[in-house]
Design brief:
Helix content: 25-40%
Radius of gyration: 19 Å
Order of helices and strands: HHEEHHHHHHEEEEH
Strand content: 15-25%
Protein name: Beta-lactamase
Pfam families: Transpeptidase (PF00905)
Strand order of the largest sheet: 2-1-6-5-4-3
InterPro entries: Beta-lactam/transpept-like (IPR012338), Beta-lactam_class-D_AS (IPR002137), PCN-bd_Tpept (IPR001460)
Shape: globular
CATH superfamily: DD-peptidase/beta-lactamase superfamily
Keywords: Antibiotic resistance, Hydrolase, Signal
Number of strands: 6
CATH topology: Beta-lactamase
Distance between the termini: 11 Å
Family: Belongs to the class-D beta-lactamase family.
Length: 288
Amino acid sequence: MNIKKLLRISPLALAAAMLAPWAAATASDAPAFNEAFKGYDACFLLYDVSAKKLVAEYNPGGRCKQRIAPNSTFKVPLSLMAFNEKLIDQQTVFKWSGQKYDRPELNRDQTPRSWLQHSALWVSQDIAPSLGYARVGKYLDDFNYGNLDFSGDIGKNNGLTNAWLSSSLQISAYEQLDFLKAMEAHALPVSREAIDQTRQNMALGKLENGAEIYGKTGAGRHRMRTSDRTPSKLRDGWFVGFVEGGAEHYIFVSNLTDRQAPTADDRYAGSQILKPIVMRILNDRTAH
């Protein structure tokens, strides 16, 4: 559908149709995706919740099956766990210890929303130990979340603070999609409130066409060798979430890894590279 023609349609019809261009996404998009992700091993999935099918898939070399560390996207399942266990509610304040971090927005008290919005690692490293290995492990199993390995770095006994950080816990894009599909359908074994509150805290605003976007990024170093879990200089990046406009609901999952180590002056995290690419893809598909 020519999105420009939608401007002459009634507001209700516009709301229902504004995401329709995604339905036309096929393998013919490969050249554009190849250019967008040039220099990276990458995956992009777009799933139509209403139609229950993928409407866009960029999966060169089976990339979407490759497991990598979830890094800060793990805050989504961790938030579900914490809300469900009533360890937190939306009024919870996480008290800053005074430890200084490079990003100034982390050097203050946090709320459940700012925890996700600012990707405050120190909050995650407070919550996971409060849950403990047994409860986290049960949730990972119930969520069917990747390889379920929360042991952390070999010999360091740091799973509760580091397992998801370029370490033992690994998940593929397809597995992220399945997890988000279950979350969107309220099919996870947690309360509706836990899902709704977590989703609310993922809100990022609107796309250019007015559709609501909810998401979470993640960044870390790619783990080259599974035997010793040694991170490399290659960057991993994630950007996952939901798009909602009118009667249309979509889930997107994307990740990338450097093909070559970045130069010394390239200080961008993988998520800082990936998120603008994906936002451009989403906006281009719904441009007026």
